[in-house]
Design goal:
With 315 residues, this protein is α/β, with parallel strands linked by helices. It has 14 helices and 13 strands. Helices cover 42% and strands 15% of the residues.
Length: 315
Protein backbone atom coordinates (compact mmCIF):
# COMPACT_ATOMS: atom_id res chain seq x y z
CA UNK A 1 0.00 0.00 0.00
CA UNK A 2 1.19 3.54 -0.85
CA UNK A 3 0.41 6.79 0.94
CA UNK A 4 0.91 9.92 -1.19
CA UNK A 5 -0.62 12.39 1.25
CA UNK A 6 1.26 12.55 4.55
CA UNK A 7 2.91 15.38 6.45
CA UNK A 8 6.01 15.59 8.65
CA UNK A 9 8.15 18.26 10.34
CA UNK A 10 11.86 17.39 10.68
CA UNK A 11 13.89 18.55 13.68
CA UNK A 12 15.83 21.03 11.55
CA UNK A 13 12.57 22.79 10.69
CA UNK A 14 11.45 22.90 14.33
CA UNK A 15 14.83 24.36 15.29
CA UNK A 16 14.53 26.99 12.55
CA UNK A 17 11.09 28.01 13.83
CA UNK A 18 12.44 28.32 17.37
CA UNK A 19 15.40 30.41 16.19
CA UNK A 20 13.15 32.65 14.10
CA UNK A 21 10.08 32.70 16.34
CA UNK A 22 10.01 36.49 16.58
CA UNK A 23 10.23 36.89 12.81
CA UNK A 24 7.46 34.42 11.96
CA UNK A 25 5.47 35.21 15.13
CA UNK A 26 5.49 31.61 16.30
CA UNK A 27 3.52 30.71 19.43
CA UNK A 28 3.22 27.39 21.25
CA UNK A 29 -0.08 27.25 23.14
CA UNK A 30 -1.33 24.51 25.43
CA UNK A 31 -5.06 24.14 24.74
CA UNK A 32 -5.76 20.89 26.54
CA UNK A 33 -3.77 19.17 29.33
CA UNK A 34 -4.17 15.88 27.49
CA UNK A 35 -2.79 17.16 24.19
CA UNK A 36 0.47 18.48 22.79
CA UNK A 37 1.06 22.20 22.27
CA UNK A 38 -0.62 23.91 19.35
CA UNK A 39 1.73 25.80 17.04
CA UNK A 40 0.51 29.09 15.58
CA UNK A 41 2.43 30.97 12.88
CA UNK A 42 1.53 34.62 12.39
CA UNK A 43 -1.54 34.16 14.59
CA UNK A 44 -3.45 31.74 12.38
CA UNK A 45 -3.89 28.13 11.26
CA UNK A 46 -2.86 26.65 14.58
CA UNK A 47 -2.43 22.87 14.75
CA UNK A 48 -1.50 20.34 17.39
CA UNK A 49 2.13 19.24 17.28
CA UNK A 50 1.28 15.58 17.61
CA UNK A 51 4.23 13.26 18.09
CA UNK A 52 3.89 11.63 14.63
CA UNK A 53 4.42 15.10 13.11
CA UNK A 54 7.84 15.43 14.73
CA UNK A 55 9.11 11.94 15.64
CA UNK A 56 10.59 10.24 12.59
CA UNK A 57 10.75 6.85 14.30
CA UNK A 58 7.10 7.03 15.38
CA UNK A 59 5.98 8.30 11.97
CA UNK A 60 7.71 5.41 10.20
CA UNK A 61 6.50 2.82 12.73
CA UNK A 62 2.86 3.87 12.42
CA UNK A 63 3.02 3.85 8.63
CA UNK A 64 4.56 0.39 8.63
CA UNK A 65 2.21 -0.98 11.31
CA UNK A 66 -0.84 0.01 9.26
CA UNK A 67 0.55 -1.69 6.15
CA UNK A 68 1.97 1.25 4.17
CA UNK A 69 5.03 0.10 2.24
CA UNK A 70 5.97 3.51 0.83
CA UNK A 71 5.01 7.06 1.84
CA UNK A 72 5.45 10.35 0.00
CA UNK A 73 5.85 12.93 2.73
CA UNK A 74 5.02 16.62 2.34
CA UNK A 75 5.68 19.79 4.32
CA UNK A 76 2.64 21.05 6.20
CA UNK A 77 0.65 23.92 4.66
CA UNK A 78 0.87 25.95 7.89
CA UNK A 79 4.59 26.33 7.17
CA UNK A 80 4.37 27.52 3.55
CA UNK A 81 5.03 31.05 4.93
CA UNK A 82 3.79 32.69 1.72
CA UNK A 83 2.85 35.89 3.56
CA UNK A 84 6.42 36.59 4.71
CA UNK A 85 9.26 38.34 2.81
CA UNK A 86 10.88 36.22 0.12
CA UNK A 87 14.11 35.87 2.10
CA UNK A 88 12.28 34.24 5.00
CA UNK A 89 10.13 31.94 2.85
CA UNK A 90 13.13 30.88 0.77
CA UNK A 91 15.24 30.13 3.82
CA UNK A 92 12.49 28.02 5.37
CA UNK A 93 11.93 26.21 2.06
CA UNK A 94 15.59 25.30 1.75
CA UNK A 95 15.81 24.10 5.36
CA UNK A 96 12.65 22.01 4.95
CA UNK A 97 13.68 20.58 1.58
CA UNK A 98 17.20 19.68 2.67
CA UNK A 99 15.98 17.98 5.84
CA UNK A 100 13.36 15.96 3.94
CA UNK A 101 16.01 14.95 1.42
CA UNK A 102 18.20 13.63 4.23
CA UNK A 103 15.31 11.61 5.68
CA UNK A 104 14.43 10.00 2.35
CA UNK A 105 18.05 8.95 1.86
CA UNK A 106 17.90 6.95 5.10
CA UNK A 107 15.11 4.69 3.78
CA UNK A 108 14.63 5.39 0.06
CA UNK A 109 12.61 2.21 -0.42
CA UNK A 110 10.06 3.36 2.18
CA UNK A 111 10.03 7.15 1.88
CA UNK A 112 10.04 9.83 -0.80
CA UNK A 113 9.16 13.50 -0.49
CA UNK A 114 8.03 16.68 -2.16
CA UNK A 115 9.36 20.02 -0.95
CA UNK A 116 8.06 23.55 -0.47
CA UNK A 117 8.84 26.74 -2.42
CA UNK A 118 8.39 30.53 -2.03
CA UNK A 119 5.38 30.49 -4.36
CA UNK A 120 4.63 34.21 -4.01
CA UNK A 121 7.87 34.86 -5.91
CA UNK A 122 7.68 32.59 -8.98
CA UNK A 123 11.24 33.08 -10.26
CA UNK A 124 12.64 32.24 -6.84
CA UNK A 125 10.16 29.38 -6.51
CA UNK A 126 11.46 27.93 -9.79
CA UNK A 127 15.03 28.07 -8.49
CA UNK A 128 14.13 26.42 -5.17
CA UNK A 129 12.14 23.72 -6.97
CA UNK A 130 15.14 22.95 -9.17
CA UNK A 131 17.39 22.73 -6.10
CA UNK A 132 14.92 20.44 -4.35
CA UNK A 133 14.69 18.02 -7.23
CA UNK A 134 18.47 18.05 -7.62
CA UNK A 135 18.72 16.65 -4.07
CA UNK A 136 16.19 13.91 -4.70
CA UNK A 137 12.74 15.37 -4.03
CA UNK A 138 9.90 14.52 -6.45
CA UNK A 139 8.53 18.05 -6.77
CA UNK A 140 6.71 20.41 -4.44
CA UNK A 141 3.55 20.86 -2.43
CA UNK A 142 1.98 24.26 -3.16
CA UNK A 143 -1.09 26.21 -2.13
CA UNK A 144 -3.99 27.04 -4.48
CA UNK A 145 -2.73 30.54 -5.28
CA UNK A 146 -1.47 33.77 -3.75
CA UNK A 147 -3.79 36.60 -2.72
CA UNK A 148 -5.62 37.57 -5.92
CA UNK A 149 -3.45 35.42 -8.19
CA UNK A 150 -4.84 32.09 -9.43
CA UNK A 151 -2.30 29.45 -10.44
CA UNK A 152 -3.25 29.82 -14.11
CA UNK A 153 -2.22 33.51 -14.11
CA UNK A 154 0.84 34.54 -16.14
CA UNK A 155 2.28 35.66 -12.79
CA UNK A 156 3.23 32.03 -12.10
CA UNK A 157 4.57 31.30 -15.59
CA UNK A 158 8.28 31.11 -14.59
CA UNK A 159 7.47 28.54 -11.93
CA UNK A 160 5.30 26.33 -14.13
CA UNK A 161 7.78 26.50 -17.01
CA UNK A 162 10.49 25.14 -14.72
CA UNK A 163 8.17 22.54 -13.19
CA UNK A 164 7.29 21.38 -16.70
CA UNK A 165 10.94 21.15 -17.72
CA UNK A 166 11.71 19.13 -14.59
CA UNK A 167 8.61 16.90 -14.98
CA UNK A 168 7.81 17.73 -11.37
CA UNK A 169 4.97 16.48 -9.23
CA UNK A 170 3.03 19.51 -7.97
CA UNK A 171 0.85 18.48 -5.05
CA UNK A 172 -1.79 21.20 -4.75
CA UNK A 173 -2.98 21.42 -1.17
CA UNK A 174 -5.47 24.03 0.08
CA UNK A 175 -5.09 26.36 3.00
CA UNK A 176 -8.03 27.01 5.31
CA UNK A 177 -10.67 29.11 3.58
CA UNK A 178 -11.19 32.54 5.16
CA UNK A 179 -14.71 33.09 3.80
CA UNK A 180 -16.49 34.89 6.68
CA UNK A 181 -19.59 32.74 6.17
CA UNK A 182 -17.63 29.66 7.27
CA UNK A 183 -16.41 30.87 10.66
CA UNK A 184 -18.50 28.38 12.61
CA UNK A 185 -18.92 24.65 13.22
CA UNK A 186 -15.48 23.76 11.83
CA UNK A 187 -16.68 24.72 8.34
CA UNK A 188 -13.33 26.29 7.32
CA UNK A 189 -11.96 22.74 7.40
CA UNK A 190 -15.07 20.71 6.55
CA UNK A 191 -16.21 22.81 3.57
CA UNK A 192 -13.55 25.47 3.00
CA UNK A 193 -10.65 23.10 2.38
CA UNK A 194 -12.29 21.10 -0.44
CA UNK A 195 -13.87 24.31 -1.78
CA UNK A 196 -10.42 25.91 -2.19
CA UNK A 197 -9.29 22.84 -4.12
CA UNK A 198 -12.42 22.96 -6.26
CA UNK A 199 -11.88 26.58 -7.29
CA UNK A 200 -8.18 26.04 -8.02
CA UNK A 201 -8.71 22.80 -9.95
CA UNK A 202 -11.57 24.23 -12.02
CA UNK A 203 -9.53 27.28 -12.95
CA UNK A 204 -6.52 25.18 -13.97
CA UNK A 205 -8.72 22.88 -16.04
CA UNK A 206 -10.63 25.63 -17.86
CA UNK A 207 -7.51 27.71 -18.48
CA UNK A 208 -6.05 25.03 -20.74
CA UNK A 209 -2.70 25.34 -18.97
CA UNK A 210 -2.40 21.56 -18.86
CA UNK A 211 -1.84 21.71 -22.63
CA UNK A 212 0.80 24.39 -22.11
CA UNK A 213 2.61 22.38 -19.42
CA UNK A 214 1.93 18.74 -20.33
CA UNK A 215 4.84 17.32 -18.31
CA UNK A 216 3.80 18.80 -14.97
CA UNK A 217 2.14 16.12 -12.85
CA UNK A 218 -0.61 17.85 -10.87
CA UNK A 219 -1.93 15.96 -7.85
CA UNK A 220 -5.01 17.37 -6.12
CA UNK A 221 -5.61 16.77 -2.42
CA UNK A 222 -8.85 15.44 -0.93
CA UNK A 223 -10.08 13.76 -4.09
CA UNK A 224 -10.12 16.98 -6.08
CA UNK A 225 -12.60 18.71 -3.78
CA UNK A 226 -16.06 18.92 -5.35
CA UNK A 227 -14.89 19.12 -8.98
CA UNK A 228 -15.24 15.44 -10.04
CA UNK A 229 -18.79 15.38 -8.68
CA UNK A 230 -19.78 18.46 -10.74
CA UNK A 231 -17.87 17.70 -13.95
CA UNK A 232 -21.15 17.27 -15.84
CA UNK A 233 -21.96 20.91 -15.18
CA UNK A 234 -18.62 21.95 -16.67
CA UNK A 235 -19.24 19.78 -19.73
CA UNK A 236 -22.63 21.45 -20.20
CA UNK A 237 -20.99 24.87 -19.92
CA UNK A 238 -18.42 23.77 -22.49
CA UNK A 239 -21.26 23.05 -24.93
CA UNK A 240 -23.11 26.25 -24.10
CA UNK A 241 -20.54 29.02 -23.68
CA UNK A 242 -17.48 30.08 -25.67
CA UNK A 243 -15.98 31.51 -22.47
CA UNK A 244 -15.77 27.94 -21.16
CA UNK A 245 -14.62 26.16 -24.32
CA UNK A 246 -12.24 28.71 -25.86
CA UNK A 247 -9.08 27.45 -24.10
CA UNK A 248 -9.86 23.74 -24.39
CA UNK A 249 -9.28 21.12 -27.06
CA UNK A 250 -11.75 18.63 -25.52
CA UNK A 251 -14.61 18.61 -23.00
CA UNK A 252 -13.68 19.22 -19.34
CA UNK A 253 -14.42 15.58 -18.47
CA UNK A 254 -11.49 14.58 -20.69
CA UNK A 255 -9.12 17.03 -19.00
CA UNK A 256 -10.24 15.68 -15.63
CA UNK A 257 -8.38 12.47 -16.54
CA UNK A 258 -5.06 14.29 -16.96
CA UNK A 259 -4.63 15.10 -13.27
CA UNK A 260 -4.08 12.85 -10.25
CA UNK A 261 -6.20 12.66 -7.09
CA UNK A 262 -5.71 11.20 -3.63
CA UNK A 263 -8.24 9.01 -1.82
CA UNK A 264 -8.82 11.27 1.20
CA UNK A 265 -12.61 11.04 0.91
CA UNK A 266 -13.83 8.75 3.76
CA UNK A 267 -16.72 7.49 1.64
CA UNK A 268 -16.77 4.49 -0.69
CA UNK A 269 -19.44 5.97 -2.96
CA UNK A 270 -17.44 9.18 -3.39
CA UNK A 271 -14.31 7.19 -4.15
CA UNK A 272 -16.14 4.99 -6.65
CA UNK A 273 -17.47 8.11 -8.39
CA UNK A 274 -13.95 9.53 -8.60
CA UNK A 275 -12.51 6.33 -10.08
CA UNK A 276 -15.31 6.15 -12.65
CA UNK A 277 -14.72 9.79 -13.64
CA UNK A 278 -10.91 9.72 -13.99
CA UNK A 279 -9.78 6.08 -14.09
CA UNK A 280 -8.00 4.08 -11.40
CA UNK A 281 -4.62 4.98 -12.90
CA UNK A 282 -5.22 8.61 -11.82
CA UNK A 283 -6.15 7.87 -8.21
CA UNK A 284 -3.43 7.38 -5.60
CA UNK A 285 -3.69 6.25 -2.00
CA UNK A 286 -3.60 9.03 0.57
CA UNK A 287 -4.32 9.58 4.24
CA UNK A 288 -3.55 13.22 5.30
CA UNK A 289 -1.78 11.60 8.26
CA UNK A 290 -1.34 12.67 11.02
CA UNK A 291 -3.89 15.51 10.94
CA UNK A 292 -7.17 14.97 12.83
CA UNK A 293 -9.15 14.39 9.62
CA UNK A 294 -7.03 11.61 8.20
CA UNK A 295 -8.17 8.44 6.45
CA UNK A 296 -6.46 5.74 8.47
CA UNK A 297 -5.45 3.36 7.07
CA UNK A 298 -5.18 5.01 3.67
CA UNK A 299 -7.30 3.55 0.90
CA UNK A 300 -5.49 2.50 -2.28
CA UNK A 301 -7.57 1.61 -5.33
CA UNK A 302 -4.69 -0.08 -7.17
CA UNK A 303 -0.99 0.36 -7.85
CA UNK A 304 -1.78 1.86 -11.26
CA UNK A 305 -2.07 5.36 -9.80
CA UNK A 306 1.35 5.19 -8.14
CA UNK A 307 2.90 3.80 -11.31
CA UNK A 308 1.44 6.49 -13.58
CA UNK A 309 2.38 9.32 -11.22
CA UNK A 310 5.96 8.20 -10.59
CA UNK A 311 6.69 6.21 -13.74
CA UNK A 312 7.57 3.12 -11.72
CA UNK A 313 6.07 0.98 -8.96
CA UNK A 314 7.28 1.39 -5.39
CA UNK A 315 7.21 -1.77 -3.31
Amino acid sequence: MHDFHTHFIPNEVLNWIEENKHIVHAEWIKKDPGKEDFLFINGKWGFELKQPFVSYDLYMKEQEDIGVSHSMVSPIPQLFLYDFPVEITTEMSRVYNHSLSQLTKQTPDKLSAVGTVPLAHPNQAAEVLREAMNIGLKGAIIGPGIDQHMLSDDFFKPFFEEANRLKAILFIHPLLCEDPRLKRRMMPNLVGVPWETTVCATDILLSGMIDQYPDVKILFAHGGGFLPYQIGRLDKGYEQWKLVSSNLQAPPSEYLKRFWYDTVLWNENSLDNLVKAVGEDRVVGGSDYPFDLCVWPPKEVSEKGAQSLLGYVMK
